[in-house]
Each structure stands twice: as C-alpha cells, then as structure tokens.
C-alpha cells in the first residue's frame, strides 16, 4: 500500500487553514484535490471532515479521526469514525491523507510506519484572505520532515498561483501505478 499526503500550503509560512477555512480560493486546486481523492481511502481529522462540501468526497471511503465515538458521519456506508491512526501502520490499501494540520503532523512526526511514501506538495503563492479569522493551522513540522527525508521527482507545475510538486521518500519502493495516476491528475 502507498500512503499519499496531499496538501495546499501558503508559501513561506506553511499555513493550510485559518479557523475552519482554507484562506484562499483557487477552484482549480480544489478540483485537483477532488480528482485525486475520488474513489480512494481518505483519512481526515474531524475538523477537516466538517469543511468538506456535504461532508463527503465522491465515492471515497473516508476515515474520520475524532475522540468522540458517537460522532455521526454523513454516509454510514462509506464513512467510518476512528479514534487513532494505529490501523494505518499496516494498512493494505492505498491511503490518501487529507489533513488537517493535526493529522498531517501525526503521520509525519510520530512513527516511521506512518510516514507517507508520496507527498503532493501544492504551494499557494498569493495573498491570504484578510477576512479569515480563527486558529491558524500550519504544517511547518511536516515540511521540515519533507525537506530532510524526501526527494522531488517532478518539476514545479504552476497553475492559478499554485505550484504543485511531487516528492517521494528517499530509499523507498514507490508504486509506479500510483505515481502515474497522480502525475496525470496534477496535469504533468
Ligand atoms: N490547505 C489544505 O490543504 C488543507 C487540508 C485540510 C484541512 N485544511 C484546513 O486545516 C484546518 C483544520 O486543521 P486542524 O489541524 O485544526 O484540524 P483537523 O486535523 O482537521 O482535525 C482535528 C481533530 O481531529 C481529531 N483528532 C486528531 N488526532 C486525533 C487522535 N490521535 N485521536 C482522536 N482524534 C483525533 C480531533 O477531533 P475531536 O475534536 O472531534 O476529538 C481533533 O480536534 C481547517 O482550517 C481546514 O480548512 C487545509
């Protein structure tokens, strides 16, 4: 199985969210995320789950991380509440890690077995929405790990103020089918 982390971060400060929002609006980037996540196993924190339109993603099996065992998901057939990431240490299928910061951090900084094999690193280079209010979520800790343990395997692909680059973990066997799928979805 291949673990793929996907995020869009703001250049320099690595902010991915303020309050409940992503503090920019780039429809082509949001569409790219949906293309990659469609039909996949996706893991998100409870806060991110609540920001997904309709709390869903097309045909995806969503694992929602929360400490509330009674949490109600929007689609009981496809979405599942989980209380820890333990099951992903030996998960046998591909897994797409879709945030937020608390979730990315646990995959990148807690246990080697959770470290993703692939990162789709999208970087937004414009201004943050000045109206956004609330707690700032940033992923600097994950970027530090990415810089140390990963290598870039694509050029930077730029569209609508967002550059997208794929990184893979040094020394890991990477499933070429997954990599090719991601390359076609980001447009390289
Ligand atoms: N730009 C991007 O690519 C991107 C991607 C995703 C999200 N975002 C943004 O990121 C922000 C949300 O990120 P966040 O870090 O604040 O929240 P988050 O990671 O989405 O969710 C945090 C919640 O997940 C649950 N959780 C996390 N780890 C857990 C564990 N080990 N055991 C049990 N439950 C656990 C807890 O839920 P309970 O409180 O229910 O226990 C916790 O409050 C939003 O602004 C969102 O829009 C941006």
Question: Keyphrases for this structure?
Answer:
single chain; 188 residues; alpha/beta; Dihydrofolate Reductase, subunit A; 9-stranded mixed beta sheet; two-stranded antiparallel sheet; 5 helices; globular; binds NADP nicotinamide-adenine-dinucleotide phosphate
How would you sum up this structure, described in words?
This protein has helices spanning 27-37, 46-49, 101-109, 140-149, 176-186; strands at residues 3-10, 15-18, 41-45, 61-65, 79-82, 95-97, 118-124, 136-138, 150-152, 157-159, 162-169. It is of the alpha/beta class and 188 residues long. The chain has one domain (3-186): Dihydrofolate Reductase, subunit A (3-Layer(aba) Sandwich). Strands 1, 3, 4, 5, 6, 7, 9, 10 and 11 form a nine-stranded mixed sheet that branches. A two-stranded antiparallel ribbon has the order 2-8. β3, α2 and β4 (61-65) form a beta-alpha-beta unit. α3 (101-109) packs parallel to α4 (140-149). The protein starts with a strand and ends with a helix. 33% of the residues are buried. NADP nicotinamide-adenine-dinucleotide phosphate is lined by residues 7-8, 16-17, 20-22, 45-48, 51, 65-68, 83-84, 98-103, 106, 137.
What amount of the residues lies in strands?
25-35%
Number of domains: 1
Mean pLDDT: 97
The shape is globular
H/E topology pattern: EEHEHEEEHEEHEEEH
Please outline the major beta sheet. Answer: 9 strands, mixed
CATH class: Alpha Beta
Corresponding CATH superfamily = Dihydrofolate Reductase, subunit A
Fold-level CATH name: Dihydrofolate Reductase, subunit A
Which structural class best describes the helix and strand composition?
alpha/beta
Beta strand count = 11
């Amino acid at each position: 199985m291949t673990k793929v982390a996907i995020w869009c971060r703001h250049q320099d400060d690595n902010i991915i969210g303020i309050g409940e929002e992503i503090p920019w609006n780039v429809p082509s980037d949001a569409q790219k995320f949906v293309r990659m996540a469609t039909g996949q196993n996706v893991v998100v924190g409870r806060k991110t789950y609540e920001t997904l339109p309709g709390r869903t993603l097309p045909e995806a099996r969503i694992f929602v991380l929360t400490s509330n065992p009674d949490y109600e998901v929007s689609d009981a057939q496809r979405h599942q509440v989980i209380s820890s990431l333990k099951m992903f240490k030996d998960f046998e299928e591909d897994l797409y890690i879709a945030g937020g910061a608390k979730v990315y951090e646990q995959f990148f900084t807690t246990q080697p077995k959770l470290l993703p094999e692939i990162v789709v690193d999208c970087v937004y280079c414009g201004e943050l929405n000045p109206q956004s209010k609330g707690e700032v979520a940033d992923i600097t800790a994950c970027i530090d790990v990415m810089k140390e343990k990963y290598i870039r395997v694509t050029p930077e692909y730029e569209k609508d103020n967002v550059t997208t680059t794929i990184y893979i973990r040094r020394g890991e066997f990477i499933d070429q089918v997954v990599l090719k799928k991601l390359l076609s979805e980001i447009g390289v």
